[in-house]
Write a structure and sequence with these properties.
alpha/beta, 15 strands
Length: 643
């Protein structure tokens, strides 16, 4: 049964094609012939498939120029730019592909990491061509349910790495026709769609495209494997069952294969499924106005046409649209790339009431996928009642894949589950503030440069120069705050003074690191905080001067937590990346080792503060100060590399 939608519309569709188009004569530079019969097979296949140009994400030496993840990123950026949106607006990301750059984790997670996208819901759909349908269906359901206002779906494929001549060396550059076949059929690319509520398309003169339904159905129980990677040619043994990868490659288990003898059955199955949909009333009686058919070869056009005619569901050929000839067959990405380019080239011809049918047959083990769109006038619509799902937006920077540990492993400074019972509610809320803070810190320009191994010694020196005057003030505002404690809270003063005393000379250690790293300013008073540091310093001094500034415990939670949780993950990367002596990192090393003790003292202070709180205001004061401090400490990170 198809999945129907009442409030899902296409916001934009984008694509990314790597490099310049490669014509048939130029293919050998990327997909070199294996032996004497390769050229004959190539001529036969190219004569039938009708592909004139395609794109490859590798260069002539077989080196990767764009990874699969980077292509997906490019398609998403194009899609968001067309819609005037940013990653901060997106709550859901689904991906469809036959495989990313790594075996795990999921492709959607890797794309999110590549783009340093804010926390969001993700789904990775693994398959072949129809993986894009599964991914988009999930995104559409997320919008339809009201769980997300906007949802992205991306599909990206990079088979070229499997087709390099070097992949066949262990087989003596000799392989069967099924492995030869796809080398001349498939190429690289990525496409993406953004789904949301009613919105006019920029290419369609005040028209919008509504998703009516999606449908996918697998017939894997009825047919053997047709297209596969990871099994021997006879499908009897998995690549994982060989002693080593080299053995699997030598046995041909790592060659991408297509059993072309099964392909005619695929279209028969898929058209029968479409006929069943029409019989049940899912296809409009007036017919289809625009037919975007993902056929892998022009050889199959008359096959599909004949089957549609026999089912009395003929679609006139002038309503068919495909970019196979100049974009090539990009697997799961094909239908998104096709939809994007169709709107670019044909969007002005759309009329209200038109229907657009996307047909995606998948040969892997036979899956039929369909999407039906309807063109509407972009008229105002009555807001519908939506389910209430909490959402957060976050700023972002588009940065490369993490070289750091997974940000989720940077735990909150204190685990509410192990805290004294009376502190659990406070620590739970503080942990929520922390999770948002450390996630945003992970996407700042400074950490971008660290994780991509691009940090220079000058960047480190600049960071230290901003930080030294900030650290110097730490013990001062703590002592001011302790002096402002009166009444019952005066008991806390000695504990805070002790902490301030331990930190009063930290700035000198940091200044020594700065000089060891190449800093030249010996007069600390001439160093200046960046705008984030200035804001934080003014805020903390101002708060410390107020009566009973218990909220400062929230500031200490964020500041000491940064030293205890975030700094230790940065230190190994800094040491590896920068040509500096060990004593240029003493401050970071000291805080990573000692802030654990400082936070234990903090826990004791919080217990005392809550026990002495006769007015019931201490907890909210701590929470609010933690929020404010996190925002300004984040600003300090953001301005380290700002000019």
């Amino acid at each position: 049964m198809p999945v129907a939608y009442s409030n899902v519309y296409l916001q934009s569709a984008g694509m990314f094609l790597p490099g310049a188009p490669v014509d048939n004569a130029g293919m050998d530079a990327y997909v070199a012939p294996l032996n004497r019969i390769s050229e004959r097979i190539k001529r036969r296949i190219l004569a039938e498939n009708g592909i004139q140009t395609r794109h490859y994400a590798i260069d002539g030496e077989g080196q990767t120029v764009f990874s699969n993840t980077q292509m997906a990123k490019g398609a998403i950026e194009d899609t968001l730019a067309q819609a005037g949106k940013t990653l901060a607006d997106i709550g859901y990301l689904s991906s469809g592909s036959s495989g990313g750059d790594s075996l795990m984790p999921g492709f959607a997670s890797m794309i999110q990491g590549e783009m340093a996208a804010p926390p969001m819901e993700t789904l990775s759909v693994h398959g072949v061509c129809a993986a894009s349908v599964g991914a988009m269906q999930a995104a559409a359901m997320a919008v339809e349910s009201g769980a997300h206002a906007l949802a992205l779906s991306v599909a990206s494929e990079m088979p070229s790495r499997l087709f390099k001549r070097s992949r066949f060396a262990t087989q003596g550059y000799d392989t069967d026709f099924d492995a030869h076949f796809l080398r001349w059929m498939l190429s690289d690319g990525a496409g993406a769609v953004l789904l949301g509520g009613p919105k006019a398309l920029p290419q369609a003169n005040g028209l919008r495209l509504k998703l009516k339904w999606t449908h996918q159905r697998s017939f894997a129980g009825d047919y053997p494997v047709c297209m596969q990677l990871g099994l021997t040619a006879d499908r009897s043994k998995s690549h994982l069952d060989f002693p080593a990868w080299a053995d699997a490659e030598a046995a041909g288990a790592l060659s991408l294969r297509q059993d072309i003898r099964l392909l005619p059955h695929l279209f028969d199955v898929c058209i029968h499924e479409y006929a069943d949909l029409a019989h049940k009333g899912w296809v409009p009686e007036r017919g289809i106005d625009h037919f975007l058919c993902h056929y892998s070869s022009e050889r199959f056009i008359p096959v599909v046409d004949d089957l549609l005619n026999k089912a009395q569901l003929a679609i006139p050929r002038d309503r068919w649209w495909s970019n196979l000839a100049w974009r090539g067959n990009t697997g799961a990405a094909s239908i998104f790339i096709m939809l994007s380019e169709f709107l670019q080239k044909e969007g002005q011809r759309l009329k209200a009431g038109d229907t657009v049918l996307c047909f995606i047959p998948e040969s892997g083990r036979f899956t039929a996928g369909y999407m039906l769109w309807k063109v509407e006038l972009d008229t105002p619509v009555k807001p519908r009642l939506e389910a209430h799902f909490p959402q957060k937006t976050a700023t972002h920077d588009s940065i490369a894949n993490d070289a750091l540990p997974d940000v989720s492993t940077i735990a909150a400074p204190h685990d509410p589950a192990t805290a004294p019972q009376q502190l659990a509610p406070l620590l739970t809320e503080l942990a929520s503030i922390w999770q948002d803070y450390r996630s945003r810190v992970w996407r700042t320009p400074l950490l971008h440069r660290i994780r991509t191994r691009q940090l220079q010694t000058g960047d480190y020196v600049r960071w230290m120069s901003h930080w030294i005057p900030q650290v110097r003030e730490g013990s001062l505002w703590m002592r001011e705050g302790a002096a402002s404690l009166t009444g019952d809270y005066a008991q806390l003063a000695s504990l805070i003074d002790l902490h301030a005393g331990e930190e009063q000379n930290d700035f000198k250690i940091l200044h020594s690191d700065y000089l060891k790293a190449g800093g030249t300013e010996t007069d600390i008073s001439k160093l200046r905080r960046n705008p984030g540091g200035e804001a934080l310093n003014a805020y903390l001094h101002g708060l410390a001067a107020t009566p009973n500034p218990i909220g400062l415990l929230g500031a200490i939670y964020i500041i000491e937590g940064t030293g205890q949780r975030i700094v230790p993950s940065l230190l190994p990367l800094l040491r590896a990346a920068l040509p500096l002596p060990p004593d240029a990192f003493r401050f970071l090393e000291y805080h990573g080792a000692n802030d654990e003790n400082h936070l234990e003292r903090w826990l004791m202070a919080v217990q005392m503060a809550l026990a002495l709180d006769s007015e019931g205001t201490a907890q909210q004061a701590i929470l609010q100060t933690a929020r404010n401090t996190a925002a300004m400490y984040l600003m300090q990170f953001q301005h380290v590399l700002a000019e």
